[in-house]
Amino acid sequence: MLGFLKKPVVVTVEINMNLVALTVMGLISRLWDLSYPRAVVFDEVYYGQFVSLYMKRIFFVDDSGPPLGHMLLALGGYLGGFDGNFLWNRIGAEYGMNVPVWSLRLLPALAGALCVPLAYQILVELQFSHCAALGAALLILLENSLITQSRFMLLESILIFFILLAVLSYLKFYNLQRHSSFSGSWWFWLLLTGVACSCAVGVKYMGLFTYMLLLATAGLHFWHMIGDQNLSNVSLMCHFLARGLALIIIPVAMYLSFFYVHLTLLYRSGPHDQIMTSAFQASLEGGLARITQGQPLEVAYGSQITLRNVLGKPMQCWLHSHANTYPIRYENGRGSSHQQQVTCYPFKDVNNWWIVKDPGMQQLVVSNPPRPVRHGHIVQLVHGITTRYLNTHDVAAPLSPHSQEVSCYIDYNISMPAQNLWRVEIVNRESDTDVWKTILSEVRFVHVNTSAVLKASGFLFTCLGASLPEWGYRQLEVVGEKLSKGYHQSMVWNVEEHRYGKSQEQKEREVELHSPTQMDISKNLSFMAKFAELQWKILTLKNEDTEHKYSSSALDWITMDTNIAYWLHPTSGAQIHLLGNVVTWASANVAALIYTCLSLWYLIRRRRKIYDVPEDAWQLWVSGGGICVGGWAVNYLPFFLMEKTLFLYHYLPALTFQILLIPIVLQHLGDHLCRSLLLKSMFSALTVAWFSSVYLVYRTFSPVTYGQPSLSATELKDLRWKDSWNILIQKQ
Fold first, then answer.
1. Residues facing residue 446 across a β-bridge
2. What is the reported pLDDT for 274?
3. pLDDT by residue (tens digit) across 98-134?
4. What single DSSP character describes residue 350?
5. pLDDT at 731 over 70
6. Taking the model in full, what pTM does it have?
7. Rounded alpha-carbon distances, angstroms, from residue 591 to 129, 139, 287
8. Which coarse location class applies to the principal site listed for this UniProt protein (predicted)?
9. Cα dihedral 530→536→540→541 (10° resolution)
10. pLDDT tens figures, 25-75
11. Own/partner pairs for 73-76, CB < 8 Å, 24+ apart?
12. 146-160, 202-216, 234-248, 534-548 — which is least confidently predicted?
């Protein structure tokens, strides 16, 4: 029974020394003196703000993409004990002693270092030689731009890592498909493909391009499987479901989980709250939640409310009125009703309060029990301080002459009767009997007499830099808009602050309106509701894109006609630039051109039944190019369609795929076009000479890659190989 003890337990481990060596070199190149410079470098000033907000659990919205990348940077800060106390206001600002610089930069550096062995593994899985794979890894290792981007608190190296991991995982899964379907390793690599894809998308939406490429590749491979008569229908269905689970369902679930963690961590109110709905703001600790704590949920006749416009951009604003009237005549000579002004005011104010009145009764207090207002009910809105009724009529609005003026009615005893009845329409209702609810209900007010809808039209004018003139205190215009002109979010309002009115007398009611609310809504938004709103804000929120000194066009990237100065030492002249290895970039372009021309030549010849290379070599050529050229195309071409400020670092994911193509083309040329021994020897010698030049250029530009040693003005001028490069030379 104990016979197994007679023999020793032996564990055999295979170690690929190429992988070990490449990993070590990658770590050295990215981690060496990582804390230098101990100052804010370029976009660290941007990402650092979010890291601080994570440390303080304060909610924010970043329109650049999903939260995973920010959370990974924050993880570095958390592991280093960062308390979030640093003012990220200037590039070059010296970090305080409380900022763990090495820890904050660690994860991007590790991701950049691991891209080196990943490149090696990808070419091996594509069935190219270990020599070609080693060449690909060394090119990634010696690419100055990738080194620079991975040594700071930036996201591109993390994005590229997950992209390469997704490609490698899919290739390993595909190669296992032939002989060990549904094995443990087969499932591992398939699931890892989905996980890596979701992480790539979770870091930046640019990762979506590679995800789509891999989905298309998987779809093409499955299409070929359908034609395999050796596979039964049940087996095909199992393959289809496995791919659907791993490549669609799991990535979607993980993507949701990133937002779940993000929203769980950021539970405190912050400076970005104002662009979110009142319901979202009320779900955060502090801020609006403190104001609305304990409010009644259902709006009733006699309720005192503030109405916030749902659009909330370019700024939040509330329906507002004050005792001042519209001028009798505007600057352009048009006349007005001279009624009391109604505006949308971007600050909390006592004049934002309105009372919901039943048109059939005179009382302005809530009855006992309260009578809730439902979808379709007719109401009057009485301004709390001036007690005048919200009104609109066939008079042109001050800034929007094609829309109706909205006012609070003053009886001048002339032939202009009050038109102050409004129908409440709950836009997000579940049924036609829904009750109007505080914060949760999004409502539209339709004027009974004219069918005009209450709209904050001032948003349009604010975007153009205009608002009401001095007589309107530069507040935003409110108009009555015909529904025939289409639906817009600026027509939708929600109750933000709410109390049940108790005072019938005006003086007592004014005191009541000035006092804070005492009650609260206990109902919180669900995660999916918060996710949907936050996701929509990320996709639609647009910061004003301004021309940046180092912005560039996508056409500038291919030939590297641009650079970015990341950091400059204030005294020594030491500096860091995002500059690529010129030889590598040029070689990548040449490789892409050769691949395209050769592929077209082969296709034409094969159409004529002329086969220049063996079938296995052709399949190798197509599969390798499909991944590398496809990866370059999907990560580069979309930028021509984007209306945003672009920088050189946006090209790095595409460049990585293009670099992987270089050894593929070199191996093909050496194996199939250099057919004599002399040509092969000459080609090998040229390859060695070319690779030596790659290393020499890497060494030449390493002072501006690592920021040390500092160079003299003459040495810096010598590095300006292109007139379009902006190398900073300080005056002596």
1. 423, 453
2. 74
3. 999 999 999 999 999 999 999 999 999 999 999 999 9
4. G
5. no
6. 0.82
7. 18, 13, 57
8. endoplasmic reticulum
9. 10
10. 999 999 999 999 999 999 899 999 999 999 999 999 888 889 999 999 999
11. 73/47, 73/104, 73/107, 73/108, 73/153, 73/155, 74/50, 75/107, 76/100, 76/103, 76/104, 76/105, 76/106, 76/107, 76/153
12. 534-548
Residue 522: its pLDDT value, please? 40
Domains and CATH numbers, the chain: 26-261+551-719 (no CATH), 295-519 (2.80.10.50)
DSSP state of 151: S
Q: Are 340 and 408 in contact (CB under 8 A)?
A: yes
Cα dist. 666→521, 549, 617, 663 in Å? 68, 38, 13, 5
- For 143, the token pair is 């690419």
Tell me the average pLDDT across 140-159: 96
The single residue listed with the structure tokens 């040449």 is 590
The number of residues in the chain equals 732
Q: CA 314 → CA 399, 546, 707, distances in Å?
A: 18, 16, 40
3-state secondary structure 66-126: CCHHHHHHHHHHHHCCCCCCCCCCCCCCECCCCCCHHHHHHHHHHHHHHHHHHHHHHHHHC
What is the pLDDT at residue 506? Answer: 67
Q: Considering only CA atoms, which of 485, 463, 462, 482 is closest in space to residue 472? A: 462
Distant-in-sequence contacts of 395-401, Cβ < 8 A, 24+ apart: 395/336, 395/337, 396/334, 397/457, 397/477, 397/479, 397/480, 398/326, 398/330, 398/336, 398/468, 398/472, 398/477, 399/457, 399/458, 399/461, 399/466, 399/468, 399/477, 400/457, 400/477, 400/479, 401/334
Angle between helices 156-177 and 184-203 (to 10 degrees): 160
Tokens 């009767």: give the residue. Answer: 417
Token look-up 């009611």 returns: 509
Name the amino acid, one letter, at 192: L
**Tens of pLDDT along 3-18?**
656 777 788 888 889 8
CB 125 within 8 A of CB 177: no
Residue with tokens 């009050």: 418
Using only C-alpha atoms, the chain has a radius of gyration, in whole angstroms, of: 33
Computed over every residue of the chain, the mean pLDDT equals 88
Nearest to 31 by CA among 94, 100, 107: 107
Residue 213 tokens read as 């490429």
47, two tokens: 């990402």
pLDDT digits (tens, 9 = 90+) for 686-700: 999 999 999 999 999
Using a 10 angstrom Cβ sphere, with 0-12 exposed, 13-18 middle and 19 or more buried, the burial of residue 441 is buried
Distances (CA, A) of 441 to 207, 401, 533, 551, 583: 36, 30, 14, 43, 61
In angstroms, the CA 106 to CA 27 distance is 11
| pLDDT beyond 70 at 245 | yes
Per the CB < 8 A criterion, the answer to whether 429 and 436 are in contact is no
Average pLDDT over residues 328-332: 84
Return all residues near 624 (Cβ < 8 A) that are at least 6 apart. Answer: 123, 126, 128, 661, 664
User: Would the pLDDT of 610 be above 60?
Assistant: yes
